[in-house]
Specification:
heterodimer, A: alpha/beta, 7-stranded mixed sheet, 32% helix, B: alpha+beta, 4-stranded antiparallel sheet, 12 helices, 12 strands
């Protein structure tokens, strides 16, 4: 029996479409869909192997309950009864605010909506968040202030026709390869590429201008570009006049940032900054593509605002072939945000503090809802360390490997009274749980994911859930046990979500069949919105907000003389729970490594592939040395994909005060040879 | 070669009869929007009698799937395993000539060239192939006619259908094929002069203003290492190791074997492998004989256009353009060939 099931890739936020090739119940391959408007028959190496982890024998099949420190397999009934009982006990004893829920950017929109509802309506806690906190929360907070909407402004298909693409803090080739293909096509079509990155990534090789600034100096760089643009009178006066406000303050602030004056901070020749500014400002079709290189800083929100300022001053936003492209890291991190899996909003970014909004949800759900803003993931961990948070319900998230400063996270988790983890493999965080509930992979469920161009797309079931239940089923069954019946059929959940969310009113499974829909979709017949802020920004006028360079929380000193930055590589995905179970992928990169400049390696007598110790104030790790001039002298770079050699024991949990995203991209480190 | 004629209506009847004699009837099927993919239509129907273009995946996916389980391991310690065998009888309908030629080349590698791959051989022996000639070029980028792989298949099929205005001409390519004809005699009739004229015109239209590639000269240039280094450098910068080319190529034969285990239990399977990966030729001690990425992608080109010309007397690129269609670096093998031959 051969089945071809069209679905959406479970890896990054690009949202590629492929068929799962199912033969006699076994998924044997992946077939790209040429008709999919996102991927058009293209896939990356992870996508081509997306089927492999699904039926891996390591998959969790039965619920696990920890007894005397050891997991024992049990039945669904026993496990769910126990979880329901404990959740109720803790809620009764310590109050609902002692509970927290972490939903999953890997799960569907419907499951995120359900879990958000479960937290607020059933547990009665405002504490719901997910991993966008550790990646693009700065995009939401930054772009919201500048434009009134915290998502990508334009669509992928405009990229090949751009005249100038400025890629800053993003590595599309490795992290978002199908967008990387569009960048490649733009280059082949003659576009000028400006790459600003502490590492000489592949697009830098074909770039017109490559700026290798120090990690954590983006605002200085961007402000200097704006300064030069104003100085040279290259700004779009008409756009500024008609569509923006607050220029005066920005003008004052950027006076202090000339290409010359930021030379020492950024480590970039003034001429390069001037050239980049000129190319961006004078090209007819310019856009900015960015990613976690901009957001994972203590100044993440300000970084995003600085880019918005640059786009607005040149009139390169709010029209076709322009804008800001925040490249989202996970298949459904856009969707998890959209579904209100955030402590301050319901679905469609409706504030929890807005009484009319809360009333609407209370009426629909027939319960009273918490009126306060809940804890962010970052605060949940801090509260847990303090002992004020008692219980954590986590779906598809491995905080012990993904959050900065692993040792602190371990202390937080150890301090909790009760942890439930819903997972497909026994992750490091799952090992800390009291109960592990086996979830379902993308291939086992119906639903939708929303990709980085705000496109809802269908996810379809190829095989029955290996554990017998999808994540949505589990939530609904727990809810029932806690005395609140919830709809668990994905299509119906989608309808409920649409009926409560003005931004997505026109979304339904039927309408997504062909090629999805890009939000906003304000009514049932609305065709979707490929370009946002056309004619008018969502907030009315675009707002210039003056931001200043602030150094990272930790800067090199004599004890820790290097800047350590972290990121992704092509062959792995996040903590490697899936990619480490794919033969081709793990063979390419079986171990963690640190990139170091040849001059630094020479000074320290380090040879290639030698095991060396990387140390920071928070921890140390032995990894292989990769000597490469892709990083500047004084800079180290490590990926974070290896669960048994976890980079995040080193990273800094200092966070952006607005969005609470940790500073993964910069900390001070030292390296030592092993004796 | 003597040809017969069959009407579209009779072809439908033939298909119904053929479906009775196989476990899976693999035929082109329309999936989402314009996607065409070979699938099993035995029970549910939906095969395209004739179609424009080609299947996204080639028939290779049925003989060498991306991952192919060999046996379940019930205990690695005790060497207990249960074989997973594929003994299904398959009829392949509507395969394009490029893919038929690819099957001929793959047969050389997997069965005829000294070493016999048993799972591959079993599946081929249990299969019947009905080719469907191309009335016009499919993908804009395809170049089968330049690689001597279209619009008609020359060998490797049991039957070949050639679309003409009043139905299909039928060529017999094997004993299996002539048995099908014999069994269903009434469905076939003789051809008319007009049909043959149409085919001639079709071939003429297909190959208009096209010069076949001088693949011997091409192989010689590559063998003598006379390809401009800029060409290899550019390929090295473009290839981002998506593995799409080696997965979709109908003649890529490389694979590796591994176990997927959870403790003592699991499954042994083979998986498609190939040139772009660094790990493909990594030595046990970790050394990589060809460390530069451009040399990995060069391996792909050398194998198709140079090594196989020496080994089989013909290149193993059939011009289907699937690799071009899926390359994230916009690498175009036809452009490569043209550039090398022009140099």
């Amino acid at each position: 029996m051969i089945k071809r099931v069209l679905t959406t890739c479970p890896y990054c936020g690009v949202g590629c479409g492929f068929y799962l090739d199912v033969r006699d119940g076994r998924i044997v391959g992946v077939i790209p869909s040429r008709s999919n408007s996102v991927s058009k028959g293209y896939l990356c190496v992870k996508g081509w192997h997306a089927h492999e982890p699904v039926q891996h024998p390591d998959r969790l099949k039965k619920p696990l309950i920890k007894e005397n420190g050891k997991f024992k397999e049990t039945t669904w009934d026993i496990a769910l009864d126990y979880v329901a009982k404990r959740l109720k006990e803790i809620k009764d004893k310590f109050g609902p605010d002692s509970l927290a829920v972490c939903t999953s950017a890997r799960c569907t929109n419907e499951e995120n909506f359900l879990m958000m509802k479960f937290a607020r309506a059933v547990l009665g806690t405002p504490n719901v968040d997910h991993c966008a906190r550790t990646c693009h929360a700065a995009t939401v907070s930054g772009l919201n202030q500048s434009f009134g909407s915290g998502a990508s402004t334009n669509s992928y298909d405009e990229l090949p026709s751009m005249d100038c693409i400025m890629i800053i803090g993003s590595n599309p080739t490795e992290a978002h390869p199908i967008v990387g293909w569009r960048v490649r096509t733009a280059i082949d079509n003659g576009a000028k590429i400006i790459v600003c990155d502490p590492r000489r990534i592949l697009p830098a090789e074909s770039a017109s201008i490559y700026i290798q600034h120090y990690p954590g100096t983006d605002i200085a760089l961007l402000n200097a570009m704006i300064n030069f643009i104003i100085e040279e009178n290259l700004q779009d006066k008409e756009f500024i006049e008609k569509r923006t406000e607050g220029l005066q303050q920005l003008r004052e602030t950027v006076k202090d940032y000339t290409p010359e004056s930021v030379k020492d901070i950024t480590g970039v020749k003034p001429q390069l900054i001037k050239e980049a500014a000129k190319v961006y400002a004078t090209s007819k079709r310019s856009c900015i593509m960015y990613s976690l290189g901009m957001t994972e800083h203590t100044v993440g929100t300000d970084n995003v605002i600085a880019m918005a300022n640059l786009a607005m001053i040149c009139g390169q936003v709010g029209k076709e072939f322009s804008g800001l492209y925040p490249m989202r890291g996970q298949n459904n991190v856009q969707g998890a945000c959209d579904m209100g899996a955030l402590p301050n909003v319901y679905s469609g970014y409706q504030p929890v503090t807005d009484e009319a909004v809360r009333k609407k949800f209370e009426t629909a759900w027939g319960v009273s809802l918490p009126s306060n803003v809940g804890l962010t993931l970052t605060d949940m961990m801090l509260r847990a360390v303090e002992g004020r948070l008692k219980c954590f319900y986590i779906i598809g998230e491995d905080q012990l490997r993904t959050d900065p400063d692993t040792h602190m996270i371990e202390r937080a988790l150890d301090n909790l009274e009760f942890i439930v983890v819903q997972e497909i493999f026994l992750s490091e965080t799952a090992k800390k749980a009291d109960v592990v509930l086996p979830g379902a992979s993308f291939a086992e469920k119906e639903g939708t994911f929303t990709c980085a161009e705000r496109r809802f797309q269908r996810v379809r079931r190829a095989i029955e859930p290996i554990s017998g239940k999808t994540d949505g089923d589990i939530i609904a069954e727990l809810s029932k046990r806690l005395g609140y019946a919830m709809e668990s059929r994905p299509k119906k959940i989608c309808d409920e979500m649409a009926s409560l969310t003005p931004l997505f009113t026109g979304v339904s499974f039927e309408r997504l069949e062909e090629n999805g829909l890009q939000w906003p979709v304000p009514d049932k017949n609305h065709p979707g919105t490929p370009i946002v802020h056309k004619g008018e920004f969502r907030r009315g006028k675009g707002k210039f907000i003056a931001v200043k360079h602030r150094p990272p929380a930790e800067v090199p000193d004599s004890r820790y003389p290097f800047i350590l930055s972290t990121g992704r590589i092509l062959f792995h995905y996040n903590t490697g729970t899936m990619t480490s179970r794919v033969a081709n992928l793990i063979r390419e990169y079986p171990r963690n490594f640190v990139q170091i400049n040849p001059s630094d390696a020479k000074k320290l007598g380090i040879k290639k592939q030698e095991e060396i110790k990387v140390k920071t104030r928070r921890g140390e790790l032995v990894v292989l040395a990769e000597i490469t001039d892709k990083v500047k002298a004084g800079v180290l770079w490590m990926p974070f994909h290896f669960s048994n050699e976890p980079t995040n024991v080193l990273t800094n949990s200092a966070y952006d005060p607005v969005c609470k995203t940790g500073e993964y991209k910069v900390c001070a480190a030292s390296i030592e040879k092993l004796k | 070669m003597k040809r017969l004629f069959i009407t579209a209506e009779n072809l439908c009847i033939l298909i119904i009869k053929l479906k009775r004699d196989c476990d899976e009837f693999i035929a082109p099927k329309k999936e989402h929007l314009d996607d065409i993919i070979f699938g099993d239509t035995k029970d549910d129907g939906g095969e395209l009698l004739d179609y424009e273009g080609n299947s996204i995946i080639s028939t290779r996916a049925f003989f060498l799937p991306q991952t192919e389980p060999f046996f379940e391991i019930s205990s690695a310690k005790n060497s207990d395993f249960v074989p997973i065998e594929d003994k299904k009888k398959r009829l392949f309908y509507g395969i394009r000539p490029c893919d038929v030629k690819a099957l001929v080349l793959m047969k050389k590698f997997f069965i005829e060239d000294g070493f016999v791959d048993i799972p591959y051989k079993q599946k081929v022996e249990n299969s019947t192939f009905i080719a469907l000639a191309c009335a016009k070029r499919c993908l804009e980028k395809s170049f089968c006619h330049k690689m001597d792989a279209g619009p008609l298949a020359k060998e490797g099929f049991d039957l070949q259908l050639i679309p003409v205005s009043r139905g299909y001409l039928v060529e017999v390519g094997s004993k299996k094929g002539s048995q099908i004809i014999k069994k269903n005699k009434k469905l076939f009739s003789n051809t008319k002069t007009q049909d043959e004229k149409e085919i001639k015109q079709m071939i003429k239209n297909f190959a208009e203003k096209v010069k076949k590639i001088d693949y011997k000269r091409l192989a010689r240039i590559m063998k003598e290492d006379k390809v401009g280094h800029k060409i290899w450098d550019d390929l090295g910068l473009r290839c981002v190791i998506c593995s799409g080319c080696i997965t979709l190529c109908p003649t890529c034969s490389c694979f590796s074997v591994t176990d997927r285990l959870n403790g003592d239990r699991g499954v042994r399977f083979r998986y498609c492998d190939g040139c772009p990966y660094v790990g493909f030729t990594k030595m046990a001690g970790g050394s990589i004989p060809q460390p530069l990425h451009k040399d990995h992608i060069r391996r792909f080109f050398e194998h198709k256009l140079n090594v196989d010309v020496e080994r089989y007397g013909m290149p193993s690129c059939v011009g289907c353009a699937r690799c071009i269609q899926t390359c994230l670096g916009n690498i175009n093998i036809q452009k490569f060939i043209d550039e090398v031959l022009a140099s």
